[in-house]
Amino acid sequence: MKRPILGLLLAMLLLVSPARAQDAFTTALPGLAGSFGQIAEAVEKLGASADPRALPLLQALQEGRLLKREDGTLLLQTDAGVTEVVGGRPTEVGDAEAVRVNNRVRGALRGALGSLQILSTNPEERLKAAEDVFRSRSAQNIAPLEAALARETIPAIRTQLELSLAASRLASPDNAVRLQGINALAEVTDQNARALLLETKAQVPDLARQIDGAVAKIEGRLRVRQMVETFFQGLSLGSVLLLAALGLAVTFGVMGVINMAHGEMVMLGAYATYMVQEALSGTALAPFALPLAIPAAFLLAAAVGAVLERGLIRYLYGRPLETLLMTFGVGMILQQAVRLIFGAQNREVVSPAWMQGTLTLGGLSLTANRVWIIVFGLLVLGLVVAAIRYTRFGLEMRAVVQNRRIAATMGIRTGRVDALTFAFGSGIAGMAGVALSQIDNVSPNLGTGYIIDSFMVVVFGGVGSLAGTLVGALTLGVLNKVMEPYAGAVLAKVVVLVGIMLFIQRRPRGMFALKGRAAEA
Amino acid sequence: MTNFTLTRRGVIAGLGAALATPGIPSAFAQGAPIKVGVLHSLSGTMAISETALRDTVLMMVEDQNRKGGLLGRRLQAVVVDPASNWPLFAEKARELLQVAKVDVTFGCWTSVSRKSVLPVFEELKGLLFYPVQYEGEEQSPNIFYTGAAPNQQAIPALDYLLGPDGGSAKRIALLGTDYVYPRTTNRILRNYLVSKGFAAADIMEEYTPFGHSDWQGIVSSVKRFASAGKKTAIVSTINGDANVPFYRELGNQGIKAEDIPSVAFSVGEEELAGIDARPLVGHLAAWNYFMSVKSQVNDQFIAMWRAYIKNPRRVTNDPMEATYTGFKMWAQAVTASGTTNVADVTKAVIGQKVAAPSGYIEEMGANHHLSKPVMIGEIQANGQFNIVYKTPGAVPAENWSPYIPENANRRR
User: Which residues does chain A have within 8 Å of residue B274's beta carbon, measured at their own beta carbons?
Assistant: First the structure.
């Protein structure tokens, strides 16, 4: 009995809605030529109109293809040419300019496009639409979302649709529907859900108790996630410190050279990355510029290191103060040289797509570039350990460090080993530069920001110990990040520095002190 | 058309015969050249920003000489490099005034460098034109400030964020570099917000060292701060190249300008030239000039700059425009007073009007500060700004902010 009536109703709706929708479409149009506020309003109306002509128009607005003449005539620019929006007559661009959008319009566009695309056949568009609707949330979206949810089969989109549905329900005038939304959102671990609930609480005081309960649930889970995130950020900072300090762990830790130009080796590595990128731009190898820059940066920094060692440092062995002053000067010369060659402006090193945005790991979202740098830091550490432990060069290096004269009598050319060791340490610093080009500015001063931290890590970890460098770097990174929210970035650094000073007082040789005769040498 | 305007303005300024034949180098009368000091860092951290200002002054000097110099005398630029080293600024200023005996100096960027040279200019009765927006709370008889005071930049920007077009923000995160300009500006902004009825819990304030590159923690805490159910916006007084990793982190953590807009006071076209601006689209900057301003003077300014620097893609920015305007004011004042004597020129500079590239007539006030229009721009994908708001006219400067309680007794 009920079916026919429903069917009749549907038929009536279908008959009526196109006429009404067209009205909404036509009445909304002039607003697009108005002020930002009027454009935003028109966009919202168009989004609610469900008119098939609204979608291409709004997409054009988003992409800057909707033009406006001075008299307010709107033009639509497509690959096929320019047409007038009203009437569809082909025309010329002339003096028409793109309709400008601001954040308010962009926000309205996102919601409108979301509700128009929620039933798109393209799953990617549907997912994006579902996300967009979440942020714009209006009670109007409840019905379309329910319809979309009934048809959706892809789990990821379903999850997002459920979330957006819950968010839209919060905007309903009916408290029972709202409560449904609140209960659904309470199960989500997401800051946006918390924000939405608190916003609703301010508007609907009757539901304050239920909302508080839901928010408390979310916050409990968020707190755990936040701890994991802070730890990750600490690891990430630690891996940067590790990369910056590894080269120094070789030149200072193993050879005992106080190399104040270490930061400049890092900087040279970053510029090598830039040069490789420029050299390869436009060629088929361009997407691989970053991996290819790693050996290039190593070679460049190692070559400069070898020249520095043979040309200057070897005359100053055993005179730490002079070495310090001399390498400091060399560092300044290198900085100014780079400034003269490349200019004072920062250079842009492009991040490849796989290093941008966030990676989602089990509900955690981690920034991609940081994850890759942690991986890279560990790889470089492995490389250094392997080189020292398993290669002929590593063996000779250890021999020379332990007892130079005996090593020499065994036929090891100690001078050559010194040069190679210093070049190796510098090369490692150059590789660090490749990683830093992704998170810091490629400028002549790049290195100065890392020199103090590098020495701190090496001394704290224990001079001459690679394990110490690893543990030292990660400890300092995590400590810094755990303290940052309480103390602020500046104070956190100060506190860590004071902590290290106290620690060195008690253990002058750092965490992993070398024992035995090697320590005395 | 161009020639007509030039000549007409020339007559108004009383330049007379000197300008009647623009573009033809005239024979200079006998007499020592007028010396123009340039005190900008050409090395160190600030070189990235300040080298463009040195080039702007040199361009203006060359341009003035092509028009026949001033008072029939040639202009000669004296360039020194204070190397981003604040005490060295004072030494170099002394050198300019005592050894080179310059008639006027254009220079300084950071407030700390200006504070360092101020006593030198006052002691030796020099004349300095300072072209950068700053925190106010200063007025020296020997300095003309051609950048914005807080009421010409920071406060209008905040008003925009609080208004409907800016998203009606109800919580504000004040992020800055740890030195005098951000701290003073944020103090003014905090007091302003409190006067607007903001609770202390709705204002977040964070400082980072110069060149800070690890923004993960701070950006996450801003995200947390923003999840309290009230529209949140960021006001950034982050200075120098720390901005690049900051914006990169905003992009990587998926913060869109529609959700949490940020407005910056120290990010201009020059800074954006070094980064991929696509993730930043919609974030805002407040200045008194954008390169995208449509005005005849601006078109000429950009063409002149690109011709001088021989690079058709170089950008212009606000401090460059302030340098241009300051130079024009000084040149007009010298012409009007008929001398380069500092005391006479100082008197003559006050009240000078210049048609600035911002498209407005800017006037030097008796408080040594320039009246300037305020503009808010949204970053576009190409690194230029889409101007979403500008004041109807030029706004006079309030260098002593009414939002600092100690200024209550001061004459304004």
Answer: 345-348, 441
